[in-house]
Amino acid sequence: MNARAARTAAATGTSRLLTRPMLLLLVASVGGMGGFYLLLSVLPLYAATAGGGGVGAGLTTGAMMLATVLAEPAVPWFLARFGHRAVVGAGLLLLGLPSAVLSLWSSFPLTLGVCLARGVGLGIVVVAGTALAAELAPPGRRSENLGLYGVSLGVPSVLGLPAGVWLSDRLGFEPVFLLTAALTLLALPAVAGLPARRATRATRATQAERLSGDPDGRKGDPGGRNGELGGRKGTPGGPLGAAVNRSLVRPTLILGAATFASGVLVTFLPLALLGGPSHLAVVALLVQASVAPLARWGAGWWGDWHGSSSLLLPAVLAVALGTAGLVRLESPVMVIVSMVLFGAGFGAVQNVTLATMFERVPRSGFGRVSVVWNLAFDAGMGLGAVGFGLLIDRTGYPWGFAVTAVLLLAVLGPAWHDRRYVRAETA
To answer: Do 29 and 118 form a contact (C-beta atoms < 8 A)?
Structure first.
């Protein structure tokens, strides 16, 4: 659908975001990600007291992210084979139920096993949810729908991260483990209302033609602007078939750079602020976590009316400036302002890159795009934490943040070229 038709559909109210399947997807996503964030900071603390020490605390996060990255490429195949209900339901169970086992037995190897299971559940929920949010979007409002879905993933982080640490400190670990299991189980009934299976290609085309007269705005190009993923001659299929689509390379690179910086912040900002004003790190992370989902939703609304690509450069610049501001760690005001900038830019980058990637493939490629996007997100987070840890031993925190900001400025070039690419394609 072209921009004029998209604006007309949105303005006349002929399409709405909060359909019943979308509402149920949001409920399932909030339950799953709530269970994820509740234990994200708690499990490292628990592992350290269960015989793992400081190294064990780090291994809990490492094991979970490794399992997530390994699981994500297989999710589109599972969706095609078993459908959304079964796959998302399995993801919720893996995120929640294993944690209940820790309330009965305490051992470091068992803790690592629980982290591996939760990592697989996380990979399933984020990949399946992202692809389904794109498929459920009404004509002309896909970017906004993805922004709304992004908010549903952001709210649990704002509430779950501090709540898990606070509850474990006052009630102990076992109640938090049981609460996590209960939260994900409560989300399971919503899964029953999700589409059982993905629509066939013919059905999707018929529905799109009926709604807009042009399925996905690709008249005269059945394979999409860049060809159907895994469907063009010379283009490999499989879960990572999207990776060879050259039009997706720059958005993937930009997202990876932004999540690299995010991995640095969530891992090391509390350590960098030790000895400073009380609770400054908590407030700073809370501000960033609160601003990011709002910016992600706002970027989705803007993208449907004005085009997502117009936000790419300012979003990357905001992330870079927010990171650079942390050179002044001694100034609480500068730290908070930096977190506002970083959160706004990071939220916008997430939605802009995701919407742009979906725009460049047909609906049959949505699952594989979701895989590539989530892999870039998770890999960037992990590399940021590991790379910054190696860097600060030689530079210290202020110079380490400065180097990270310079790396982010380097992707302004790809962001500019990608913006020009979109203009050329839509001219």
So the answer is: no
Tell which residue, 394, 106, 397, 65, has the closest CA to residue 264: 397
- 123's CB contacts (< 8 A; 6+ apart) are 67, 68, 69, 70, 71, 72, 75, 91, 374
Report how far residue 36's alpha carbon sits from residue 26's, in angstroms, rounded to the nearest whole number.
15
Distances from the Cα of 300 to the Cαs of 2, 75, 190, 226, 297, in angstroms?
16, 25, 25, 23, 5
pLDDT in tens, 212-231: 333 343 333 333 333 333 33
**C-beta of residue 176 within 8 angstroms of C-beta of residue 164:** yes
Nearest-5° Cα angle at 146, 194 to 269: 115
Judge contact between 415 and 316, C-beta under 8 A. Answer: yes
The DSSP code for 214 is S
Find the farthest-apart pair of alpha carbons in the chain and give their distance in angstroms, rounded: 63
Whether 20 and 193 have beta carbons less than 8 Å apart is answered as: yes
User: Can you give the pTM of this predicted structure?
Assistant: 0.66
Q: Which of 42, 34, 33 is nearest to 61 (CA)?
A: 42
State the Cα–Cα distance between residues 64 and 59, nearest whole angstrom. 8
Task: Tell me the C-alpha distance between 227 and 190, whole Å.
Answer: 35
* 313 vs 316: CA distance, rounded Å: 5
For residue 123, what are its two tokens? 């990979």
Candidates 147, 156, 149, 158; CA nearest to 296 is 147
Of 58, 130, 102, nearest to 354 by C-alpha is 130
Residues 15 and 126: their CA atoms lie apart, in Å, by: 25
- Please state, in angstroms and rounded to a whole number, the distance separating the CA atoms of residues 359 and 140: 11
CA distance 369 to 357: 7
- Assigned token pair, 274: 């030790």
* Count, residues in the chain: 427
pLDDT digits (tens, 9 = 90+) for 345-400: 999 998 888 888 888 778 777 777 878 888 888 888 777 777 777 777 778 888 88
